[in-house]
Amino acid sequence: MDWSIEAGGALILNGPNGSGKSSLLRVIAGLLTPSEGYVDYQGKNVHKADDYRMAMHYVGHLNPVKPVFSVSENIKFWAELHGGREITPALKIFGLGNLGDVPGRLLSSGQKRRVVLANLLTVSRPIWLLDEPSIGLDEEAVAALVAAIESHRAKGGVIVAATHGELKLKEASTISLGLGSA
Fold first, then answer.
1. Which CATH topology does 10-34+50-163+170-176 take?
2. 131-147 per-position pLDDT tens digit
3. Phi then psi for 5, rounded to 5 degrees?
C-alpha cells in the first residue's frame, strides 16, 4: 500500500482490535521493521533517519505516568527530557489545572490519558503518532484532543492515529484494516 501525508494532513488507521493498527503505527514510528517495504521521511528510511525521531511524538496505548510524581511533575519531567516549554497551557487545555498536585497513582485511566496527551503540547514536534488517543476519555476530553490535533494541523503538523473507534478530524484520510490485514 502506498500513501503519503502532506503538512497539515491526518491519517486514521481504523479497524477492530487485533487488525494490525498498532503494529502499523509502530512501523511508521520506526519502532518495528516492516516485513516488506519502508517508511520514508524527507527522502530517508525512518530506520536510518535520526532527525525523524526528533520530529515525532509517539503516544502508545499505555499511559506512562509515574505514580509517585504529581500531574505537574509528570508533564514537567517529559517536557524537560525533550527540551520542552511551559506546561501550564497543556494543563489547562486538557483540564488538568486543578489536578496539578495530585499523584499519578490516584488518577483515573482517563486522567492518566490526559496527562500523556498534554505532553504533546509541551514539545514542538511536527509529527504526532497516536495509538488509541481517545481511549478512556470522556466527551469533553475528546473534544479537547480533537481541538489540539486540529490546531497542530493548522500549523502544518501531521497526525497519524490508530483507533478502533471514531476520531472526528477534518479531511482525514483513512486506512481501514480488517483482521488478518497486518
1. Rossmann fold (3.40.50)
2. 999 999 999 999 999 99
3. -130, 125
